[in-house]
Structure formats: C-alpha cells, structure tokens
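Step 1: inspect the first sequence and its tokens.
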Amino acid sequence: MLGDYLLSNPSVIALAEPDFKLIWGWHAVEEIEHKSVCFDLYQHAGGGWFKRAFVYLPVALDFFILFSILFWSMLYKDGLLKPRKLLQTIKQFLSFFFGKTGVVWYLLKHSFQYLSPSFAPWNHDNRAKTEEWIASNTENIKTL
C-alpha cells in the first residue's frame, strides 16, 4: 500500500536528497514487485479470509503505534516540536496525513479492499507505475 502511495504521489519525497529519493523509490518498486508472495503463501498454507481480516486490525494498530513513536521522536530530534516551529509542523502533519491526497485516506481505501473476501494483491495492478519509475530512474540507479 505504501509503495503504491509513494509512486502515486512523488511529491511526498520531492524535497528529499536525490539519493534518498532514489532509495525510497526503489524500495517502493521492490515492495510492489513482490507484494503477493506472503499472501499467496498464506493462502497455500490454508489461511482464509476470516483469520486475515481478524488479524489485520491488531497488526495495523501495532504498525500505527510504532510508526507514531518513531515519527514524533524524529520530529523532536530535528527540533520541529519546539514552540516556534510547532504550528508549522502540525500544519504539515495534518496536510500530509489528512489533506486531499493524504496518506490516511489512501490507506483506508486500500485497507477496505484488503478486507474484502475477494481480495488478491494483483487485483490492483500497479506494474505500470513500477515500470515508469524504473524507466525514468535507470541512469540514476546505475550511478548508485
């Protein structure tokens, strides 16, 4: 989900250092390319929809908690929670997570799709995004 979000919203990392943009883009492509491996293995091992849906909530909650701790600690270490910067930080936070193209809305939409009994990872075929990213970054990848 996050790999697709990143490739769909390149502005998210537009201001990052070029090498970081390249690494995050590559990681997004990599995640998309093998997104069905665990799902296929789970199904092959006899896993069904009920268990998948039941386990999703605690896993998502755990991810949210761990992400929040890391996110806010990095903001703190970067000095972005100091009183003179706090308002701007909160505005950027709200925009990124809850704005028009906010990651929360994207994750919610795809979470509901994941919770559908008919879900399969490649129902959302985003290979064109990965191919486009690779084509536009081939030269940069070679220099890394």
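Step 2: inspect the second sequence and its tokens, then contrast the two.
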Amino acid sequence: MKIINARVFIDGQFVNTEVRFDETGITAIGNDLPDTDVIDAEGNYLYAGIIDCHNHGGWLRSFAYGEEDEFGTYEDRVKFLVEKLPEVGVTTVYPTLGGTQYERIARTVREIRKIRGKYEGTRIGDLQFEGVYPSLKRYMTANAVSPSKEHSDWLVDNDYSDVALFHVSPDLPGSMEWCDYMVSQGVDPTVGNTEASAYDVFEAADHGLCQADHMFNGFKAMHHREAGAAAAVMYDDRIKAQLTCDGYHVDPVWVKILIKIKGIDKVYGVSDMSDASGLPEGTHIVNGKKITAKDGFIYSEDGYITSGNMAINQIMKAARDRCGLTMEEVGTLYAENVARCINVTDRGKIEVGRKSDLILMTEDYEVLQTIIGGKTVYKK
C-alpha cells in the first residue's frame, strides 16, 4: 500500500513524496514507488499518527476507573475512547491518571493493563501520572502524601514497565531520592502542580527530572522577585515541556515565548482532554454538575471557564489560527516532537522502519483517514 499526492510532514517540513507501508511498518519513502494498492491523498496533508501523551478521556468518558454508569462498565467506556480517538487523529494515547484518590488510581492501573490491546482502534500506550504528589495549594487534599518508593510501588503493583511519566513536586520531602528511583525504573520524573522554587527544580533535574507537565498550568504565576518552577523549566535545557495550544490553557504570547526560549524541539503538544471535552455545543451534565460547551471551551453554571473542549486535531487548528503558529510549527509540536521528547522511537514520525500509524488531514486539520498498524481504522 502507498499514499500518493500528499503533502507529507517529515523533519519539520512538508514534502511532496510517496509513503509505502504495510502492517509491519513504513517500508519506503520516495517517488514512483512500486505498488498497485494506492491511496490518493488528493493534495491533503499526511502526518505521523498523533501520540497524545496527556489525555484523561473525552466525550463524557474518563480513563479513571469508575463503577458502571449510563455508558456501561469501565471497560465499555475505555473501549469507546479507543474506538473514538482515531476520528481526531490520535493513534496512541497515554492514559493520564491524576489527583490524590490513590485507591482509584491503583485500581485504574490494574484495569487498563487488562484492557490494553483488546480492542481495535487507538493504541493504549504507557501511563502518565499527574498531580499525584502535589504541593500547589489548589491541588492539595487531605489524602495528599509526599513521594516515596513504597507508595509509588504500591500504585503500580511494583511494575513500571508501562509507566512513562510520573509527576512530582520537588519541594516535597523525599523528592530527590524518589527521582533517583524513578530514573532507575526507566520512568521520566515530571514537574507540575507545584509550589517549588526554581532551585528545587534545578536540584531535581540533577536527579533526573526531565519533563514538565502541561507547562504554565499547575505552576505558580511568575513574579520578577521569585524564581518559581515555570522559570526553571524555561531556563533548564534538560527539561522538555508539554504545552496545550488551544489559546485558552496558555495565552498565545506565552506559547510563543516558551517556544522561543526553549527551542521548539524541547516543547511538545498535548491535548489535556478530560471527560468534559469533545462535547457538542450546548448544555450537559457531567459528574452531576451542569456545564455549557461553547466556542471550544467548557463553562461552569456560574459562567467560569473550567476546561478546554477541543480534541487534539481542533487544538492543532487553534494553534495555527488562535496562537499564530505556522503549519510547520504545529506539525512539529504535535506530529513529531512528542515521540522525540518522550524517547519513543518506533512511531510518532514518518520514517522507514517505524510503525505504520498515519493520519490524512485537510489543511484545516479535519481528519480524513486514520491508519493504525497499516490498517484503516477510520475514514471520513
């Protein structure tokens, strides 16, 4: 199978070339490739399948474990997400488990491990833990604890083989030893939801902390007399930064400042979708509360914006149209940098030998076709 007449995104630019693939992976890139089985892209845009490594759910379903509800069992809800996400271009999703409901997190880890690979659709990738060890006051609960080897081992049943990113606040007691332990387990320590100073973060980076959870969100506001965690992330080249570019999570000026200071190769795009994302315009009931979806955002009953409502392909469009990024910058952030920044080498870029996970999009990021493992799993 080969794709012709596409603008193919490779190494930060669009090129006119053909891409041949089968179920084993991408087998050739070039012109006039021999193959009689052809997909004609008709001038549309071909990207590597998107790895959304910060996703809590969507369309009223969550990756966090819960008992049976109007949408069925927990497995029913995850199956729905796996089958729905190809429509927005996500070919691998990292379920992001957040907060300090530790029993629920531990149960979710066990349930996801049972479901992974069971259904056709978006691949369930590794896990990201967010807000598990917070120090920022608005994320603190009576359950919150400081990081420790023993506590983290319990959360994951002593198995870190499918854990990619694990949050910590480096101002908490024991965080440096905890970072050392995460690194020894092949896990990237991630800073976020924190009151930490820049100096706490620099010290944690000495112990292997190398990622920033959705940059600027969950960080103290910056002040010229106080060097906080956000300043450390911008300054320290050892730390890669997640970023949501919908124009709400982060003001477009800050999006551009971060990219300019760190360099675009150390910044990668995430959706931060929640169960209250991906909803049609109008009023909904989520977790017993009335919300309104309007203009790409979710509003509480008293009129406050509580989250974004966009799926990742819509965020890519907003990154261009609201934040003023070029299509090359958008493609770099969302279709190549995720793999680069979280050290994934078998997918996340159009390159011979990588998995044949591909998405065909219009100029305005409408998904036309999603290919996972060489098979079309969604076609508009």
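Step 3: confirm your contrast with the notes below.
Residues 9 and 47 are 5 Å apart (CA to CA). The chain has a mean pLDDT of 95.
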